[in-house]
Specification:
Number of strands: 16
Structural class: alpha/beta
Number of helices: 4
């Protein structure tokens, strides 16, 4: 339950459970914070082997030795106390309105959904609200913003203003990102971790093939239960022949997590 005591660790709620959010959850969990992730009923994560959101589909998901578990609101406290990360299906963060589960004085929220547009207001006040990437303005719709774009400012904290604007382009070789050619249902022909040859079919969407852009490892593929929309990101191929790509969170997620840790510990040290 929420508490007014400054001596108690805050409850940290992360909106979104994709690969970036998972790196953040891991670092916060490792230093002793209790974490709850709020997700959609059909999460859109592509790098599912390193996304705690996969617990929505599988019931539980373990990444780098830490387990997330899909729970209902009345179970999440017990799950966290057992050393696991609780995952709730709660896309609108309604848990913040439940005064028995959260408290304006002791709840921190990290928005890791990467919507890249201005978010809707939270349904309740929180002690700390951290926004990742474009769409957030520190001092206006959140307390602090973390840079998510790969550059010399990746992972930096902004207590005023914005992160870099959305470039509309993925980091690195833009060809690596697989997008849906049409809307519909996906049929996977490859699984995450499989080696792919250039031109080889990875999946079908309404019988239209999506092929590998080059030789590489399939690093991510959206869950088949998701109804995909034309142009949606559905997969990720990596040209590095490295099997660790599918079981370790990315350097980018750890860098962003470092910024989040800076904000959390600044708040705990100096209040405000």
């Amino acid at each position: 339950t929420g508490t007014n005591s400054k001596n108690m660790k805050p409850l940290i709620i992360i909106r979104g459970g994709g690969d970036l959010a998972t790196g953040i959850a891991l670092r916060l969990h490792r230093v002793g914070f209790q974490i709850t992730i709020l997700e959609l009923d059909k999460p859109l994560a592509v790098r599912r082997t390193v996304s705690f959101s996969e617990a929505v589909y599988e019931g539980a998901q373990t990444v780098e030795g830490v387990t997330s578990r899909l729970v209902s609101a009345d179970q999440f406290q017990v799950t966290m106390e057992a050393g696991e990360i609780a995952v709730l299906i709660d896309p609108h963060a309604n848990i913040l309105k439940n005064q028995f589960l959260t408290s304006p004085q002791s709840t921190f929220v990290i928005d890791a959904r990467l919507l890249k547009s201005e978010p809707e207001s939270l349904p309740a006040e929180v002690a700390l609200h951290i926004g990742l990437g474009p769409g957030f303005t520190a001092g206006a719709n959140c307390h602090a913003v973390i840079e998510t774009r790969r550059s010399h400012t990746l992972g930096r904290v902004y207590w005023e203003g914005n992160a870099q604007a959305d470039s509309k382009q993925p980091d690195g070789d833009a060809r690596r990102v697989l997008r849906a050619p049409v809307s519909g249902n996906m049929e996977a022909l490859k699984k995450i971790g499989d080696v792919c040859k250039a031109g080889e079919k990875i999946c079908l969407i309404n019988n239209q093939p999506v092929v590998s852009p080059f030789d590489g490892i399939l690093r991510g593929l959206i869950h088949p239960k998701v109804d995909v929309m034309e142009g949606m990101k559905i997969g990720d191929v990596d040209s590095r022949n490295d099997p660790d790509l599918i079981r370790l969170v990315s350097d980018k997620s750890l860098a962003v997590a470092g910024g989040v840790l800076e904000v959390v510990f600044t708040k705990l040290a100096f209040g405000g």
